[in-house]
Design goal:
- The protein is α+β, with helices and mostly antiparallel strands.
- Among the domains are: 161-245 and 505-542, no CATH class; 260-351, no CATH class; 421-501, Immunoglobulin-like (Sandwich).
- The chain is 56% helix and 9% strand.
- The strands form two sheets. A five-stranded antiparallel β-sheet has the order 2-3-9-5-6, with no helix packed on it. A four-stranded antiparallel β-sheet has the order 1-4-8-7, with no helix packed on it.
- The longest helix has 57 residues, at 506-562.
- The radius of gyration is 29 Å and the shape is globular.
Length: 568
């Protein structure tokens, strides 16, 4: 009953952003991209295609291969919710589920570091973390929101992995980090560098390389666990514009570094970072035990995460491998939000800082909600009453994301004036007669009647996973024009051409095999732990029964000695 009560409390608290959605509507720069991808993936599943790869609504139906590159877990959750809920409720339900999972993971992780009576406080403090609410409301960064649900597990297994010599926590840390890689790449990179710095500090203190080796092994395990997605995405990024596109200059979002634009949003992030580091440092001065390694580790994590947000670390952002891909320094607030409850509510805490901490965090939460209700970008607002019109409008397509545009193509900011199908070149009119027979996002068919070879141009971007075959199953040559649009070379005669987008390659097959082996390893380890626990319980029960039997025999012997003997 206690566990059910805890879940109900989490479910009630997680309604806070959902109520804000009801009052003020959906908003955020990432809202349109997430909502449309969930709807598109849901449609693919209904058509029996588990891994569509291609988002046919992007770039106003010219498409983009975002499903090949975007981490899958948040998309899967959004699409599953879209299968069972009305479209208007899916974003709110996604946020609700992500916050509940965040509370549950913090509740589970805090058991090691926090007293039993304070575990619920730690979970609520994490669920109402101002940055968590900021990305849920102002930004609607759905994948980052879900990724923060795994951060408590990451810090739990990280502490166990670097604080001892046991290797088993390394495997579980790899699993938690793998969940991050499969949910949000920028936050996974931020976590990797912050935890690497803390592991280095622990290694220096202990004068041992074991903490660094354990963390490195966990990162390798996480990449192998996410290999089915990460390996192909990394190898195939040369096919898209990701390597040359940054949504913003990360230098503009360092604490007090720039006042050029988005001042309200930056100020909220800066206040959250400064308030949380002040609470962490103040709490660290009031320990009962000076040698508390647990709190030291989390204080170090909070400090490291804060340092990555100040201009002093710009050289690191410019030279460390892929750190620039984090894009926004304020993403390190996710790690500070996980470290804060562990520091404030640690078992050795004097508790005197809790009241000012609650007041500070409450004021920050109010600031975030006010920033959401007052400073919403008008171009992104989609209130509940107008959601039906919005859902209808995106069936005509949306601009898409510049980093997923195929190489050689251009992101569309307005619907292009293109016929769905046409003949490429300047040949005489009537030489090639074409007709579009079906125009699904991943399967298209068209007819061609020509006495000579002709190139058929379709209003979709070319990409290596497009395959064209004629009615006999013979493969046709695919190329692209100067704008990156797909061309199909069709031989003379009457033909029915089938154009399909299928995500399949030897590299992807090998990556799935690697991930499957890692999942099997996790399953065997989990079963081994269950068997070990059952065996220990039986041993303890057997020991207890034997002790009880010995006690009973001793008491019977004593009673027989004390019993008077009758003489007849």
């Amino acid at each position: 009953m206690k566990k059910i009560r805890v879940v109900l409390i989490f479910a009630a608290i997680a309604l806070v952003p959902s109520l804000m959605f009801v009052l003020f509507g959906y908003t955020g720069h990432d809202f349109r991209a997430h909502q449309t991808s969930w709807m598109e993936l849901r449609q693919a599943w209904l058509e029996g295609l588990f891994n569509p790869g291609w988002d046919g609504l992007a770039n106003f139906k010219l498409g983009q291969p975002s499903f090949c590159f975007y981490p899958p877990l948040s998309q899967w959750l959004g699409a599953m919710l879209a299968l069972v809920l009305p479209t208007v409720l899916v974003p709110a339900a996604f946020t609700w589920v992500a916050l509940i999972v965040s509370g549950l993971t913090m509740f589970a992780a805090s058991e090691v570091f926090v007293a039993e009576e304070d575990r619920l406080k730690a979970a609520v403090l994490y669920m109402l973390n101002p940055y968590l609410l900021l990305i849920a409301t102002i930004r609607f960064a759905a994948s980052e929101l879900l990724a923060q649900a795994w951060i408590p597990l990451v810090v739990l297994f990280f502490y166990r992995a670097v604080s001892g010599k046991s290797r088993r926590p390394v495997l579980w840390l790899g699993g938690a980090l793998g969940l991050c890689w499969l949910t949000n790449i920028p936050l996974a990179i931020a976590s990797a560098y912050a935890l690497l710095a803390v592991a280095a500090i622990v290694a220096i203190k202990r004068r041992s390389l074991i903490p660094l080796l354990h963390f490195a092994a966990a990162e390798c395990i996480s990449i192998l666990l996410a290999a089915f997605y990460m390996v192909p995405a990394y190898m195939e990024q040369k096919w898209i514009s990701a390597s040359g596109v940054l949504r913003s200059d990360f230098r503009e979002f360092f604490i007090f570094a720039s006042f050029s634009h988005q001042m309200r949003f930056k100020l909220i992030c800066w206040l959250i970072a400064c308030a949380e580091i002040a609470l962490i440092l103040f709490a660290s001065m009031r320990w009962r035990q000076a040698g508390d390694r647990v709190r030291q580790t989390f204080v170090e994590l909070g400090i490291v995460a804060f340092l990555f947000q100040i201009p002093l670390t710009i050289p690191l952002w410019e030279h460390l491998f892929k750190l620039w891909y984090v894009d926004f320094p304020f993403r390190f607030l996710a790690l500070m939000g996980a470290a804060l409850p562990m520091v404030l509510l640690a078992k050795t805490s004097r508790r005197k800082i809790l009241l000012p901490a609650y007041v500070t965090m409450g004021l920050l939460v109010i600031l975030v909600l006010l920033g959401y209700s007052v400073g919403r970008p008008s171009a992104s607002v989609t209130a509940f009453p107008g959601f039906r019109e919005y859902s209808a409008s995106i069936h005509d397509g949306y601009p898409g994301l510049p980093e997923y545009v195929p190489v050689g193509a251009t992101q569309q900011i307005a619907p292009p004036a293109l016929a769905p199908i046409a003949i490429a070149g300047d040949g005489p009119a009537g030489e090639c007669a074409t007709a579009l027979l079906s125009a699904a996002a991943w399967d298209k068919s068209f007819s061609v009647d020509s006495e000579q070879p002709c190139n058929v141009r379709l209003a979709i971007f070319d990409y290596p996973y497009w395959h064209a075959v004629d009615e006999r199953g013979d493969s046709l040559v695919i190329s692209r024009n100067a704008e990156g649009l797909l061309l199909v070379a069709v031989p003379p005669g009457r033909h029915i051409v089938h154009l399909r987008f299928r995500v399949s390659s030897p590299l992807r097959t090998a990556s799935w095999v690697i991930t499957s082996c890692m999942v099997l390893l996790f399953a065997l380890t989990f079963l081994a732990e269950i068997c070990t626990r059952i065996r220990r319980r039986k041993d303890l029960a057997g020991t207890g029964n034997e002790e009880s039997a010995n006690t009973l025999r001793a008491s019977q012997a004593a009673s027989s000695r004390d019993k008077p003997v009758s003489v007849s």
